[in-house]
User: Fold this.
Amino acid sequence: MQVEFSYPDLPVSKARGVIKNAISTHQVSILSGQTGSGKTTQLPKMLLELGAEGKGQIVHTQPRRVAARETAARVAKEIGVELGEEVGYQVRFEEKLSPRTKLKVVTDGILLSEIRKDPLLSRYGAVVIDEAHERSLNIDFLLGFMAKILKKRPDLKLVVTSATIDSEKFQSFFEKALGQNVPVINIEGKTYPVEILYEPYGSQEALCETGVFKSLDLDLSQQVARAVMEEIDFDPSGDILVFASGQREIQEFSDAIEGALPARYKDEIEILPLFARLGSSDQRRIFAPHSKRRVVIATNIAETSLTIPGIKYCVDPGTARVSRYSRSSHIQRLPVEEISQDRCDQRAGRCGRESEGIAIRLYSEEDYLARPRYSEPEILRTDLCQVVLHMLFSGVAKSVEEIEGFMFLDKPNMKDFLSALNELEDLEAVRVEKGHISLTRIGYLMAELPVDVRLARMVVEAEKYGPKILAQVLAIVSFFSVNDIFRESAQDLEKAKRMQKMFQDPSSDFLSALNLFYFLFETEGKSLRKKCAQFFLSYQRAYQWKELFSQLSSVMKQRKTEVGRVVPEGEREAAGETGEVTAFKWDEERIHLSLLPSLLQNLGHLEESKDKKDKKDRRTLYKGARGIKFEISPSSSLYKKKAEWVAAAYLQDTGRLWARGAGKVKPEWIERSAGRRGKYRYSSPVWSQSAGSAVTKRTLSVYGLDILQKTVSAKRLFPLESRKLLISALAGGDVKNFAGGEFIKENLKILDEAEEEAARNRTSFDSGALEEFYDSALPEEVVDVRSLQDWEKKDPNAKKTLRFRVKSTRNEEMYPGFATVAGASLPLSYAFSPSDPLDGVTLHVPLSLLGKVEQKDIPIPPGYRSELILAALKALPKKIRMQLSPLSSFAKKVEEKMGDGEFFSSLSSLLKENFQIFEPIDWDEVKSKIPPYLLCNISVEKWGKRKEALEVSKDLKYLKKKYAPIEEAERKERVQTEVERLKKEGNLLGAGRVLKEAGLKGKGEEVILEGLVEGCNISEERILSLWSPKEKLLLFSLEDKKDLCRDLKRKAVLLIISSLPSSEEELYFAQEMLQRNIESEIKKMGEIYLKIAEKKKEVLRQASSSPLSMLRTVSDVLGHLSSLLEPANLFKMSAEEVKEVPRYIEADLLRLKKARSNSSRDLQWQTEAKEAQKIVQTFKGGKKEKEAQRMYEEFLISLWAQEMGTKEKVSLERLKKLNN
Assistant:
């Protein structure tokens, strides 16, 4: 770059040789220059002159956008180039750069974002970090990054500039980080002497001639006014700068000064405010030439950012609002605090920029000296969420240890980092596992968005709800990211407030922001500048708002996410003052659902203060997270609206805790958004008759704030308690009527009767028996009425199971628990349940033993015996009873003499033999008159893992008759199961024995035979390979492939072994024989089958060519052939029987041949054949059937093929004789 470098007469210019030498010989240099030294504009020129840009661009950072633009413009002008060419700038919403740019002035935030994309800043040869003394969060973060980058890039130069003498701190930091010498160059500033006057409260009486402040008992506003009046009286020239902590204090100071001014000064002095929200036109008035003397009352914006012309005097109360983040309450506080010495000096320096000045400090010199030398860095008093998120995103830290080890100039407390990590976890941005920290998908997107982490989280959540909601949330996020767009007018303050309120949504400031966005950027008509002027809005900040919205939209679009337009659902009423529509309808629910995950720490529930008697004076308070209480900001549309639930964009403590940017929300929305931050607690479950289940009150709390209480079912949360409550409700009858619930009243009735019976008999009774019964009867999964009904539907025995049977204390001798029946000890049970079939005593008999039980085996417990005898005697006919009176005495005699055996048989014999009662007695009628509970019940049951009652009756004969087939089927099933098990183990003989012992002898032989057949090691493929394809087709005409192979194997096995084995030795021998001979025997057997198939084919051929006159003959022959060769019939034939089949078919062929010449004779023989067939059909299985079938075939040969000869003498008479 061919440029002639010249330097103005500034302190830094005089030291440029030293500065250039330090930069040339050191990697890091510290330049400490006081205000006015020229370091900001001249240092970049020195770096360009040194050729630092030869190794890459020179990047120069400024804390503020305005300063970055002005610095770039000033340097470009001084070296004679056009701004945006060799010298350019880049700030958040604007850039002026070109490919030829050598010096780029940026904000520190821009450089930080570049580090995330280019961790080594490879495009730069030199970096200047200006105004490092401000120690903003970005500056400290940037310094830490530079310490890491410089280690890896020894060619990179770094110059750090500071306006304070605390340069040694920067020097020590980099020397320790890099292990090399870091020079510090100190430059004097171009300022005039400033006299410092200390006038603390009550130090002296005022010297002003008005005498207004004779009293020493002054408040701060009066003290400020007194100091201002001193300067006005002392010197008629020079403007006065007064520092205030905020807008409210500006107004108080202004009113106090206005009140203190004598009448003669009213037209000569004007009082002007200066603060960030002040309109640009009002701000320009302060810097414009003026004739009147001025008192400018400013916030700390006037400390460093702005140089106000004409200031000769300064009044410093020594306080300012300092932003502090409270880790415990998660609130950004703005307390008014005493400022540090360096800030006191900065303020004093404001009145020495153009001439000698005087600074009046409203505190003592001792107070000044006792204050900290430097301001506390922002990183030690701010929320670290953003810092931690970007450390993780840029990869400089992946664990808690690496975060703690990052090189900060002043390291924050580790608790602050952990608090930030915890909050990022709550926002679902990070995942912490065993000390390792990783970003989630949500976290990565949050880090890409250049806004506060909580605002970024809103954008991520809005993605769920589609392009339209996403766009609207982007507009809201952008709004809360730029400085306050509403400006205040010193002349038209009330009108400004009135006009701005026209955009307010009555329920949400977030929706108010959308109203404003839509009006400014989406509606047609006036230009943006005119709209801003009309409604007292900052054009510059409105422009920034739109730019940030576009920037955020671009980030989302780069991620292939569609962003819609910010368009409302409809319009509200037109604004009254302008007639323009400025308020609209939006999708309130989905917008707030997008915002809520970020705002859960800023929730509030209405809690009206009661500390004032007059309702008008009561403050509208909200109870917030962790027990805090706050108020809605007066600038909010919800101010004094008393919404039940609100969520705020942020909470700010300025002495009172204010919610700024608030929206009305519903508890249901909060519940949907709570995620891991929502904690549920549950009350003890109670029974609800209407719900038919146990219920519990579930309370959702978020950060200690109870949000929502619901009554929910307890069955999944507290299954054991729910079951207990159901049982108590059933036992107490506290259940609504439901299908299948009839048992409840029945059981309660039985319980009442049992209690009465126990009282009568003076026996003990367990009052909790019904609950115990339900506890044992109901499965564990039954916990409410619904699950009870489901179980009743699924289990057919449920109704029986739910029938209550009373158990009282039992005498084991009188009421034994077991009885010996059919050689087995079977259980007895007792119940007092008059409506239940099991009332009285019950004998439990397994189904497998039922067939062996006899009537004489049915027990009568001793406790029932006396009562049963008396009842039986009372049931006798009256004529007999007359002979036995008195019955009670007679019953005792009977009991003494009566032996064992079937009760009624024994009683009948006793009456005849001992008491000469010979009249006939109908004992069935006697039984019918005896109370049922005295006669033993017989419960037939399946016994297994769980006993299953099949039926209960007192009639043994009926039970045996009904369940005999079932018992037999079960017996066979048990036998078959055992046989299958033995077969799997290869124990064929054992399987045969089991079948034989079960009375299934033939079945046992079949099992052994099948086992031998299956054990033959020859496959279907091998069997079929024994014949040609043509032969196989013939064979398949008899049986299908699988059945044919099985049939041939089976017959071959029977040919090889003479008889089935009956010992292990015989079995082994048989298996050996089969392995050696099976294939050859199958081949022989197959040849016979081939003959049969060929004969069959010939019969079919001849039948098809026979004349119509032979129809009956052909039909009869084909019927015989079909019956003979039916596959099941072939399979049942022995090998010897199969060998005869070709003869039988040959007879059919001869019959067809003869019938062609003499069909009448054939018909005559058919009659005899039919008669023979009927005789054979009378045989049903066994050897005789086989013999009859053989004789029948031979008889057919004797009729139609006498020339073939029969193997035995056959005739109709012989067949009939076999049948007889």
Q: What stands out?
A: The domain at 194-376 is CATH 3.40.50.300 (Rossmann fold). Residues 204-215 have pLDDT under 50 and may be disordered.
